[in-house]
From TrEMBL:
GO molecular function: histone H3K14 deacetylase activity, NAD-dependent; histone H3K4 deacetylase activity, NAD-dependent; histone H3K9 deacetylase activity, NAD-dependent; histone H4K16 deacetylase activity, NAD-dependent; metal ion binding; NAD+ binding
Annotated keywords: Metal-binding, NAD, Nucleus, Repressor, Transcription, Transcription regulation, Transferase, Zinc
Name assigned to this protein: SIR2-domain-containing protein
The protein's required cofactors: Zn(2+)
One Gene Ontology biological process: silent mating-type cassette heterochromatin formation
Parent-record interval covered: 130 to 423 of 488
Active-site residues from the entry: 137 (proton acceptor)
Compartments in which it is found: Nucleus
Residue ranges occupied by any Deacetylase sirtuin-type domain in the UniProt entry: 10-284
Similarity remark: Belongs to the sirtuin family. Class I subfamily.
Cellular component terms per the entry's GO annotation: chromosome, subtelomeric region; mating-type region heterochromatin; nucleus; pericentric heterochromatin; rDNA heterochromatin
Amino acid sequence: MKKVRLMRSRIHDFYNIDHVLSKVKLANKILVITGAGISTSLGIPDFRSSKGFYSKLESLGLSDPQEVFDLELFHTDPSIFYSIAFMILPPENIHSPLHSFIKLLQSKQKLLRNYTQNIDNLESYAGIHPDKLIQCHGSFAFATCVTCQYKVKGEKIFPAIRNKEIAYCPKCNSTRLKLLKNDEVSYLPESYGVMKPDITFFGEALPRKFHDSIKKDLLDCDLIISIGTSLKVSPVADIIERVPPKIPQVLINRDPIDHCNFDVSLLGYCDDVASHLCQKLGPKWNIPHPKYSS
Ligand code: CNA
């Protein structure tokens, strides 16, 4: 476990790990914000760390790695996304101890909502209830045809992703092939009949569920815990700014976050920090460690 370090305090009576422990004990409406860091222990790279996804893309010669998730570029050339998506393809039936920690908060009736920026859908394997979960940037759970909106389970397009091939819509593909054969290719958009995973690209609106919930949850919550995110992507990053000042805010992250004013920052690997907290919270706070779901 990396050393737990305390940073600046926002309000006077909430500034150390003991305060976090007592607040977790008392709270019953915890708003948990999560990001890629809660899945890195399973081998899924995050985006912005030195060994993250973006650094890998840079070595592939992409000038701005975020372009891979640009909606316009996807329509112009879906092969770019499909050539690298295998790198972030989520494993199935697996979750981290940190996912178990969130599930434990839910089981103890303490979880108001988990706002996750992750697209790996691992929260569902951990048993986070759909009502308790906002997948702010969508997920790989489903994929939709950009032409006819036909929807399939995400797993259906995983083989194509693994093979670095574009996944085509089972309904539109025969028309696409016919049009191509008839030499009408110049009229055919590159993305005709292409399946797009239901993840939110830059240039797309966040799912409605996010906007419907966040306003009320900010008024209702009694503790915010932000875990494994650099908080660099709006509007999720803005949640922290919008929290009423009386609500204590805790960060659990490997690296410090300097642009937000958390009351307490517990710096370290989130699985370890969560285990440490649970150990201190007592014997009824056991988080299961096996990473595979039963
Ligand atoms: P990010 O910007 O890459 O930040 C990740 C943060 O997590 C960094 O601050 C790291 O210090 C921290 N971190 C990494 N590993 C650990 C760990 N084991 N314990 C604690 N902290 C750790 O990623 P964000 O989530 O902030 O950015 C939002 C993007 C990332 C969303 O749009 C996601 O869709 C996207 N993303 C998701 C996944 C996934 O679903 N697993 C993977 C990669 C990227």
